[in-house]
Write a structure and sequence with these properties.
7 strands; alpha+beta; 6 helices
Length: 261
């Protein structure tokens, strides 16, 4: 294991884990099924609804791939990545989106990790040049007007969340159950750079559909956003769900259960 600035935060080398529990295989099969579904939809006649359905499926599939990478990271280090890595002065330096790149499925995305410099901040002169190489799994094709270098997915960060600032969380700490805890979701309006150590704050979260929180760009779909749970599953959360109910699902040890969906 490699550590950064002596803070006990795992900065992964480009290595893989031999541990492939059943839940990981289920996630992989789901990703493959989703990819085939997208392929067949795009092969159908060029009809708007079919195209948008394929884009929605691709967005959902991206979250599943991110979930698999998070679990692969946990397999190697015994913990999920922190929301960000800071320097000795507490300044946020690097995002979890960079830390999990060695564990994603696409070799092109993994190669971007090898180009990233951890000896400078995310917005240092070299790392800024990587913004134009946004990994595909961080972009939702439904968001056609996305600003270059931005991500469509963000974690919810707070002391009671799976993404807890610089402090990593283990699966055992998620006493609400991994199937009842939201880790991240679509955040198409936030304009967060993919390498930027910034996400959605639990303290300032308003409601699903808020452009600074979790929101999506899906045509012809009821308002809401896809979210990734700690077990690697993906669920659509409607903007009609009360904000306080959503916030309870962001916490890892509050005693809440995922409502019907």
């Amino acid at each position: 294991m490699v550590y950064y600035e002596g803070e006990g935060i795992a900065i992964p080398r480009n290595e893989t884990s031999d541990s492939r529990p059943f839940v990981r295989r289920v996630i992989v099969y789901g990703i493959l099924a989703g990819a085939l579904f997208v392929f067949f939809l795009f092969m159908m006649p060029s009809v708007g609804p079919h195209r948008e359905a394929a884009r929605r499926t691709a967005c959902r599939n991206n979250l599943k791939q991110i979930g698999l990478a998070l679990h692969n990271y946990h397999d190697v280090y015994g913990m999920f990545p922190p929301a960000y890595v800071s320097n000795g002065q507490g300044q946020p330096m690097h995002s979890w989106r960079v830390l999990i790149l060695p564990y994603v499925d696409d070799s092109k995305d993994r190669a971007i990790y090898d180009q990233y410099h951890f000896d400078e901040p995310w917005d240092g002169p070299h790392n800024l040049g990587l913004l134009e190489k946004t990994p595909q799994l961080y972009r939702c094709p439904s968001h056609k007007d996305a600003e270059a270098g931005t991500t469509d997915y963000a974690a919810v960060v707070g002391d009671a969340c799976v993404m807890r600032g610089t402090v990593p969380v283990t699966i055992r700490e998620i006493t609400d159950g991994t199937s009842n805890t939201i880790v991240l979701g679509e955040s198409s309006g936030s304009r967060i750079r993919w390498t930027e150590p910034r996400d959605v704050s639990l303290g300032t979260f308003k409601h699903i559909g808020d452009v600074d929180g979790f929101s999506s760009e899906h045509d012809g779909m009821q308002g809401g956003a896809f979210t990734l749970l700690a077990d690697g599953s993906v669920h659509f959360v409607s903007e009609e769900m009360p904000a306080e109910s959503v916030k309870k699902l962001f916490t890892l040890a509050g005693g809440e259960e995922m409502p019907p969906y």
